[in-house]
Design a protein that fits this description.
The protein is an alpha+beta fold. About 10% of the residues lie in helices and about 30% in strands.
Length: about 70
Amino acid sequence: MEKIYELREVISNLDNLEEGYYSEFLNTRSLDVGVIKLREGQEDDQSSHSIDDIYYVIEGKGLISINGKNRRIS
């Protein structure tokens, strides 16, 4: 079954969370996909995962640490 995800709909789910800042919208045996929404100055406190991550910045800017090296993202 093919599923199309609308970014606007996925992001709107974040506004409905009672706690946290992460909303998963796809979970398969080989892939987990979700979105996080951080406020200015807020840090992502998730621990490392056993699978690779993809980050796509929709709005704003910040720093990401990859293998101990900080990189600017926007």
